[in-house]
Amino acid sequence: MGTHLILQPTLLLGTEKNMTNFTTMSGFILMSFSGNPEIEILHASVFLVLYLVALTGNILIITTTSIDDSLHSPMYFFLKHLSFLDLCYITVTVPRSICNSFVHSGNISLWECILQCFAFTVCGCAETAMLTVMSYDRYVAICLPLRYEVIMDVDTCVHGILAVWISGVISGVMHTAATFSIHFCGANIIHQFFCDIPQLLKLSCSNDYISELGVIGFLSLVGLLCFISIGLSYTHIFSTVLRIPSAEGRAKAFSTCLPHLCVVILFISTGVFEFVKPPSNSPTVLDFFLTVLYTVVPPTLNPMIYSLRNKAMKASLRKVFKERKAYQIC
């Protein structure tokens, strides 16, 4: 019942007309998945389960890689930061959407929308950079094993993490500044469950979004370079692994690479949907589903991929649970 009301013109009170017929937005209305309250509750419940799974899995990886000395290597150092990024990435959008669905309200203030866009862009771009750094780490480990400890020393790892976050923040500032420098016209309804930049651009007046398209083009080029770098790293990795004479050696090499490769494929393939699918004036269930694929699915499945495919991670998780159980008995 409440979700039907958000579409009524009488509720579009977050706008103020000025002298130039532009609209100065003081807030937006996030479109719900459905006008049916029961379906809204179902959607919120599913999102809540997925969020708790992502939260549990990523916290387990962060905890395990922090306390287990056998996992104090560059590979797991980067994995720990990837899990932290995943936590931030899903927390930016999902909890707010869950809350909106339970209270049947999609109102979000201008500053909340700006902050959400900034944080979402930072996390998305930083995750792309992180996966690129991790692919380089696997390349050095497998293709240059004798020089691994020299190349991937503490300074290199720290500089890699700093580069990841700096690139994410710069991308977030550019994207957010370009998006909210435009004038918004008409209804302040965003056809998405979070402040999605493509949907915001649809509210722009005339050609005000040209500067944002330039930013999108630049960041797309950077993303393409990251993708090419990851592809080249894995081309060399597979070429080297296939030359390993022993089957055991090949299996060990693949066991450390396949989890990362699965995460890369999952994140990139789902992220492509953001650029492939055109924003729709009348979004369908498929549109929302594709959005969920690149906002919710990767951070939820990443911990499962690493814990199920990585023998060292599974052994460490079992060790942590056994120690915790023994501590509780004592």
UniProtKB/TrEMBL annotation:
Annotated SUPFAM superfamilies: Family A G protein-coupled receptor-like
Molecular function, one GO term: G protein-coupled receptor activity
Intracellular or extracellular location(s): Cell membrane
Keyword annotations from UniProtKB, A to Z: Cell membrane, G-protein coupled receptor, Membrane, Olfaction, Receptor, Sensory transduction, Transducer, Transmembrane, Transmembrane helix
InterPro entries found in the cross-reference section: GPCR_Rhodpsn (IPR000276), GPCR_Rhodpsn_7TM (IPR017452), Olfact_rcpt (IPR000725), Olfactory_GPCR (IPR050516)
Keyword Transmembrane helix in record: yes
Bilayer topology annotation: Multi-pass membrane protein
Membrane-spanning residues: none
Gene Ontology CC annotation, any one: plasma membrane
Keyword flag Membrane: yes
Signal peptide boundaries: none
Function: Odorant receptor.
Family note: Belongs to the G-protein coupled receptor 1 family.
Name recorded for this polypeptide: Olfactory receptor
Organism: Orycteropus afer afer
Lineage of the species this protein comes from: Eukaryota, Metazoa, Chordata, Craniata, Vertebrata
Gene: LOC103211160
